[in-house]
Amino acid sequence: MAPHPRALSTHHLVLLLTVAAVTTQAATTDAAAPAPTPRAAESRSSTGSSFLRARCATTQYQTLCYDSLLPYASEFQTSHARLARAAADVAAAHLRALSTRVKGILHRHGSEPAVGSGGGRPSEAAALRDCTSTTSAAANLVRQSSAELDRLDAAPTAAASGSGGRSSREARWEVSNAKTWLSAAMTDEGTCSDGLEEAGATASPAGKEVTAGVVSVKQYTSNALALVNGIPL
């Protein structure tokens, strides 16, 4: 016999009320639940900044080290190799910018912005052209250092990871190469400064601007080298 319409309607009503109550409870629970907080990200950033402060204390330009590398703290966290690589990348970026700036100075003032006084002295333009070349070469050397540090970070040593990792000898070789490239970059930076001084160009507006730029990039490169020196092997 078919169910009575009133009974069927009452059954449906009870079912609908039950579903509605469950749905309302779930929605209330979801609304009351606290939103997830980025605690993990904050913890990583805090750990990285503390590590950075400790490592920058070993450099000659501590404030510059901390301020320039803090934006990358979540990336290197507590990795000496990644921190040194970040420092090298920052130094390379500043060197490329300086090289571009010197080219702009030459373009604005023509091929001979000023002639150094004294017999046999190179012109200021020649010294600036040399600075364009040496700062560009320094940037390439710093990038080579970064590449060495990238290889060091990509594969742990055998002692740290068990069989299959690179040997400690290979790790020392990569760190040694990174130091060599950074030292060579600092030599190129010094060559630029020496050339400007020899040309008697350090007092001109263009010479002052480039000299100040070289002083700045040398600090970044010096910090990168100090951080490479601090990589434990």
Automatic annotation (TrEMBL):
Region (Disordered): 29-48, 153-172
Domain of life assignment: Eukaryota
Low complexity bias: start-end ranges: 29-40
Keyword Ligase (UniProt): no
Keyword terms: Signal
Signal peptide: 1-26
Gene3D superfamilies: Invertase/pectin methylesterase inhibitor family protein (1.20.140.40)
Domain Pectinesterase inhibitor: 47-227
SMART domains: PMEI
Entry protein name: Pectinesterase inhibitor domain-containing protein
Organism: Urochloa decumbens
